[in-house]
Input
Amino acid sequence: MSHIKLRHGMLVALGVAVVATGFAYAQTSDSNTIKACAQTVNGQLRLDTGGGCLGSEQAIQWNQVGPQGPSGTSHVDEWARYGGIDGGTPIVSGVWPDIRGHETTVLTFHLGKGQYLVSAEILAINNDGQGVVVCQTGNDTLGITLAQAAVGNTAGFALQQTMQEQTVFSVPSPQDLIVECFNAPPNVPAGTPKINYVDVTATKIDSSTFNGTPN
Output
């Protein structure tokens, strides 16, 4: 991606793994809920298939699809991709700025004209190497928001990390936005970094304030 315009800084968050059968979707209705159980010790996540969670686990759930509001009001669209247990989209490893323009696209979504609060949640895994996974959401026209996390199998890293991004995009005309990622140094060995889960929620709004600044 060339001529990148940064928006609203960088957010870093640690989290837990998401496991599910592999599929992708982009919908604006339905309220199906995914239920899972997270180990309180290491954060390992598994799907709750109906038996509930153990005493050593915490129950977690999230909606597969965001709700759409009545006509004339703000509404929520959601796009997500799950890679399955130990699966996902392999991402490229490299050094900035050489890697610029070669990042791996892990999700593409479309926004119509309007102003949107866009939130992204991204799960990266790397079981046999290490690096700082960097992900960016947006495009050349609107700019991007960034997140990064140290992912890997060595001291100071975690095999699975969840990153979160949030910003406001003013979209002058309908267009595609992307979530793209790469694995940056220290990455020797780079291993096989992947994006196992990515979820983007776009809330259309008439006006907003972000970090105290009107948009």
The CA atoms of residues 154 and 191 lie 11 Å apart. Residues 6-27+71-208 form a domain with the Jelly Rolls fold (CATH 2.60.120).
